[in-house]
């Protein structure tokens, strides 16, 4: 059962990722990305990380994607022109490098991971277990991250506002 | 049971697709979206390892990555807006003043 | 006073410092006072020191002092003794004679210069330079080892350059196109050739004997150290150095052109002191030369040959100073010939008397030039004895002295040299020197008659304004004339006094020099009779020379020209100075310039080219690398990815 869910979700995510990368319309890419994010959330659930999966849906698919869509609409982006790569250099090397890269990672990953998941402990992936860790061991990073969010907010407002002429 | 190696392969594939997107696309926002794709691929790998090592630490890393991705998306989009105001386009090939 | 001998060369430096720093702002009287005053101080100090030296017993007259260690060299050969060189100064009879001559004649010339240089700009600069010269010359003479002497040696060469080129913006010789600055350079460069040989000689000495102290080397040689070949080689090398400094063949060419300098310079440096440094040095190393007879033979021959050679050039010269310059070269040849036959004391005796009358002659010439406002060509002079009476009287005294007329100084010194040559068996050298004596008398009186007698042949306007020189110039002339008369009387040979040994000079100097052939032959094979007849012969030769000059230049007017026409090839040869300068120009200077041009080109194209090449290469690499900066973000991302892939592959294989 799990395996079927896994395969389906995996396929969905890969397919939607391909759409993101290849479609010329930015709106289509955005929607495909949302799809991808949700399927990845599903993958998280399959892997017993319930809390994170929830967060993925709420934050990523819910907030970030909406933000991106907002901006696309704001700038009224049309279809993208045909991506002509700049120079032979890019045209030849980009696919080569990407393939090499994928092969290298894939091979490395395949050879270094055990083939079976161990049994999950009780309370693995629940909000309480993650929360407990977060507010005890990772307290300082947590506070720092909240500070970072403030900074990002201020930065975004400053960058995007119209200049007072 | 699911083979962890397959999970990681999926993650690798997603990441490679994201990389291809960054190298190929011309729209600034589309490139940002591909970057999000790559980040998610990384998150997936983290979750797989969390499950392998049976601990909450990796999940917390994912938590942080997500937060950072949000902040980065906000700032990046602000930059794109500022750039659009300046150049009238989000085509990254038009932004080439640092050439030799 | 003896312990203060190191002050003797240092005192003139005070003059250098004061006049050098403040001279421009001081009145000329003050500059002159300081410049002459320091020399007077050195003179008095020298006199005091020599008096004290004389109180010591004859065989212990040697005093050394040191201002400290100069070069602690350590071992020159592994396992050898440590070698050090000190700032040593020594006073012995030889250097005593030298410092008295240098400071005495030097002082007179300094006083003369106050009058002579009165109207020249650069008055203070002049005194700075000649004070520096005096300091260097005294260092040369008082040094207790070859290296301190060499410091002075180089120093006087430098001052000679500075002083010859004193009028640095004036041209000098129309025939060769030389300027005064060129003449100074020529002197320095020719000197350098000699100095090179000198240094090599010193290097041989220090590596063989481990010391450059005169006493140390003499003792080592007496003890038998150093092979014969080495001693001959060193002797010849040092003599080459002396040839450069004392203008012997083949390095004499700078001295006639050195007349570009002011006349007091010619008197001081190129007559009385600097050029005698070579003679001094050879005499100092007499112990070495006595053990290297081949080197002495070379010295003797070169000296005698130079004596005749230079005399012939003096016969046809027309510049008053150049005649005197050739005369100096010739007389220096006499001194070296004396050294070469072992008559060391005779050489120094002649050095001293020559300083007196040659300085007198040069200063007299300066007075003539000064009185005529710059005319130096004797064919445009004449009848000057009525206008410059004191100059005339003193000049004639000097001419008689140099011709060797009894009882003036030159007679005794020249005669001792001739006797030394004859009695030690060097008959050829004796003959050459005797011939040169005749020529000397001839050209000196040719000069005298052309300048002071006859009718004035130059611009009559100049003759009207010709006047005697001021007291500051005529008083030194008179003092030197007096010295030229009595200066020989301290060296009267025994032959003339019927056995009474009153040759004070010889006694004074003998302990300081090696005993040579001269002493050995003294009184042995040849008796007083031979000596007397040779004296008479020399006197006769001198009188013949004077008579010939009188006839040619006073009695029969056209005779000079008809002789010149009759012996035209010889005349042309002498007039053009045997084309030696031209020979050097073609054989040495032109090839040297060619090499220099080649080197300059090599430096400019190859060496600079290599440096430029590295810059060009860097530029090319930069041009290539800049192609990576396309401005497109996607290219940068790709490069980034490529880097990551490389790292991954690397990690995968590890």
Give a summary of the structure in a few sentences.
The longest helix of chain A is centred in the middle third of the chain and has 26 residues, at 50-75. Chain A is 76% helix and 0% strand.
Structural summary, described in words:
The complex is a heterotrimer of chains A (165), B (100) and C (654). Chain A folds into two domains: 1-79, NADH-ubiquinone/plastoquinone oxidoreductase chain 6, subunit NuoJ (Four Helix Bundle (Hemerythrin (Met), subunit A), Up-down Bundle); 126-165. With 165 residues, chain A is an all-alpha fold. Helix content of chain A is 76%, strand content 0%. In chain A, α1 runs antiparallel to α2 and α2 (26-46) packs antiparallel against α3. Helices cover 78% and strands 0% of the residues of chain B. Chain B has three helices and no strands. Chain B has helices spanning 4-24, 28-53, 57-87. In chain B, α1 runs antiparallel to α2 and α2 runs antiparallel to α3 (57-87). The mean pLDDT of chain B is 89. In chain C, the strands form two sheets. A two-stranded antiparallel ribbon of chain C has the order 1-2. The termini of chain C are far apart. In chain C, α1 (7-22) runs antiparallel to α2 (28-54) and α17 packs across α23 (528-555). Chain C has helices at 7-22, 28-54, 93-116, 123-142, 146-164, 180-209, 214-222, 228-246, 254-257, 263-272, 277-284, 286-290, 293-316, 320-340, 344-371, 389-403, 409-423, 427-452, 460-465, 471-486, 504-509, 517-521, 528-555, 559-566, 568-575, 580-625, 633-653, and strands spanning 63-75, 82-91, 171-173, 178-179. Chain C is mainly alpha-helical and 654 residues long. The chains are: A mainly alpha (165), B mainly alpha (100), C mainly alpha (654). Chains in contact: A-B, A-C, B-C. At the A-B interface, α1, α2, α3, α4 and α5 of A face α1, α2 and α3 of B.
